[in-house]
Amino acid sequence: MGVEGKDRAKVLEAGAAALSNQLGLAVQRLRKSYGLSLADLSNQSGVAKSIISQIERNETNPTLTTIWRLAHALDVSIQSMLEGGEGGPFIEHLSRGATPIFVSDDGLCRLAVTGWLKTVDWLQWYDFQADPGGVLESGPHARGAVECLSVLEGEIEVDVGGTIGTVRAGETLRYRCDRPHRIKNGGDKPAHATMVNILKSAMID
Fold this sequence. Notes:
Layout: H1 5-33, H2 38-45, H3 49-56, H4 64-73, H5 78-82, E1 101-103, E2 109-113, E3 123-130, E4 135-138, E5 146-153, E6 155-160, E7 163-168, E8 172-176, E9 181-184, E10 191-198
Antiparallel strand pairs: 1-2, 2-3, 3-10, 4-9, 5-8, 5-10, 6-7, 6-9
């Protein structure tokens, strides 16, 4: 027999309160396990320090956006957060259809974003494929940024400010990418490479 009317409302209210308290305890436990202060977590999540404090003390009902930001900053899923944050090892499976892919202007180069979006401001990595004759033009990245191109198949030519380097299967080319640069498959076979951009590396003279 189900509960109705006021009794049902009380049950729902109690359930919501329990879930909110569980969320607050999970945020606090995870934050402390990483050695983060309220200010640290605020900086990493974009959630105000006062709001995080209220969540931990079960004094507010956060929005789904707020919960997502905190879960993202603490490297757990929303489900794990709501269950108390006691999840196992971190494993994130990105399906083929969910992997962002950029295509060059000539339609011959494809850049799949295989890196973690959380590191995009300082570290990016991609799976790069180019058909014969394909060219990928790139503008300059931040001062001191370095790009590492490791070729798995074929041969690729990199032009950085008029200086050209050629890299073949099994080889890696590192170069400054804080100026306009171009990657080209000048061969007659498809080329395949991994590309890592270090956007906050040490300054290079």
